[in-house]
């Protein structure tokens, strides 16, 4: 057991890279990275003395990193000292013409004996079984979007056999046929994205609607739809970080909603699917899509991987599409966990990704937001507790 390590963080935008065993026990196939929640309790060697070994089942606030650095977000406790996320995030029109699309599936076989077969956890004063807390994460995902991009909606691509029901005014369920079994999930996710884009090509709904395909364990904390105006010519956008083995994160793929954008994004994803099927079927099932994504990008002759070392947006033509690369630091920021270098949070983070066992923090963050209605203060909570390892 001691050899199990932070497998899930390889899917992350932070700089961890360790492989491990994955013990498939979950019945849910939700915000994908939660499938690999079974990582070790062991902290990194260096910091074993200072970082608690155990995963905690309650919120812990520690010192806020990055204080004193001029380009970082400053907090006093959970009070934000910089004025951020106020200008666009509460504009009532934010999110107009942008949909978030995620893959999420629940089976009633598992829900039937939820209480008996799954341990429960408590967040705030609410008790959740495992499936219930995955639903809570999905709800928090939609709730954050409702707050920061009120005109936006959320499309959940799900197995037609799934028993998902969700009562939120900004959420639409879209069944897509496929094989959503655990071993096939990452492959199916790309397939479902492609099918969804095909549906959009067939049915011209009039007007332009952009799509952002994401994991569901993210909090959108600012109007991310501005990328479509700010960078006017890309067909699709991906997030990158400075990590040699895993420079791209598959948890964020934005597609411009023009016919051309949808078509080129579809062709691009078909390339990724082909690379996955021919090269990475034997790769760990949680990494296949990211490896395939990297392989398509890097196989492009003129692509210079050095561009991943600086957190600056850039555009490249790849597989017939104009691809915008956005830095994870702003568009897919993950609270660091445990030991390691950590220089705090950039001032204008748009998306916080609660990968792996950070999901308790996502629910705590949503609860905190509900009682304060203040996104910057909530980011202080996330930043101040970012080092803690949580239990789910
Ligand atoms: C953020 O707040 C800190 C503390 O008040 C301040 O020193 C820093 O200059 C601010 N940064 C910006 C960019 O406003
Ligand atoms: C799920 O529930 C429906 C209706 O309640 C039932 O017909 C179906 O067999 C169930 N599926 C599974 C896999 O148990
Ligand atoms: C749970 O907490 C919320 C918010 O703090 C509060 O409004 C609610 O009354 C509490 N419920 C119970 C059963 O204590």
UniProtKB/TrEMBL annotation:
GO terms for biological process: response to salt stress. Keywords: Signal. It comes from the Eukaryota. Residues 1-35 form the signal peptide. One of its GO terms (cellular component) is mitochondrion. InterPro entries: Nucleotide-diphossugar_trans (IPR029044). PANTHER family: POLYPHOSPHATIDYLINOSITOL PHOSPHATASE (PTHR35723). This is Polyphosphatidylinositol phosphatase.
């Amino acid at each position: 057991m001691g050899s199990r390590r932070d497998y899930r963080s390889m899917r992350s935008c932070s700089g961890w890279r360790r492989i491990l065993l994955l013990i498939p026990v979950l019945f849910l196939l939700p915000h994908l990275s939660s499938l690999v929640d079974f990582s070790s309790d062991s902290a990194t060697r260096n910091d074993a003395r200072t970082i608690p070994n155990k995963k905690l089942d309650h919120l812990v606030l520690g010192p806020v990193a990055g204080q004193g650095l001029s380009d970082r977000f400053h907090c006093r406790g959970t009070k934000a000292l910089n004025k951020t996320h106020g200008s666009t995030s509460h504009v009532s029109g934010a999110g107009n013409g942008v949909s978030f699309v995620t893959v999420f599936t629940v089976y009633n076989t598992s829900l039937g004996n939820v209480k008996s077969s799954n341990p429960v956890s408590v967040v705030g004063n609410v008790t959740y079984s495992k499936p219930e807390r995955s639903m809570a994460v999905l709800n928090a995902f939609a709730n954050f979007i409702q707050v920061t991009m009120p005109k936006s909606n959320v499309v959940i691509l799900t197995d037609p056999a799934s028993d998902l029901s969700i009562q939120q005014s900004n959420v639409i369920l879209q069944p897509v046929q496929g094989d959503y079994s655990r071993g096939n999930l990452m492959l199916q996710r790309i397939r479902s994205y492609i099918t969804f884009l095909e549906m959009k090509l067939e049915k011209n709904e009039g007007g332009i609607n952009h799509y952002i395909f994401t994991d569901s364990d993210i909090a959108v904390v600012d109007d991310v739809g501005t990328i479509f105006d700010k960078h006017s010519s890309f067909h699709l956008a991906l997030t990158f970080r400075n990590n040699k083995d895993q420079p791209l994160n598959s948890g964020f793929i934005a597609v411009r909603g023009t016919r051309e954008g949808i078509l080129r994004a579809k062709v691009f994803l078909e390339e990724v699917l082909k690379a996955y099927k021919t090269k990475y079927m034997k790769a760990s099932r949680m990494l296949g899509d990211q490896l395939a994504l990297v392989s398509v990008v890097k196989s492009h002759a003129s692509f210079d991987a050095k561009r991943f070392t600086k957190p600056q947006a850039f555009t490249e033509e790849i597989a017939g599409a104009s691809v915008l690369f956005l830095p994870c630091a702003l568009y897919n920021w993950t609270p660091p966990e445990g030991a390691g270098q950590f220089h705090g949070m950039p001032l204008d983070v748009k998306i916080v990704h609660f990968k792996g066992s950070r999901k308790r923090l996502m629910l705590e963050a949503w609860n905190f937001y509900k009682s304060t209605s203040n996104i910057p203060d909530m980011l202080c909570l996330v930043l101040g507790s970012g080092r803690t390892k949580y239990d789910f």
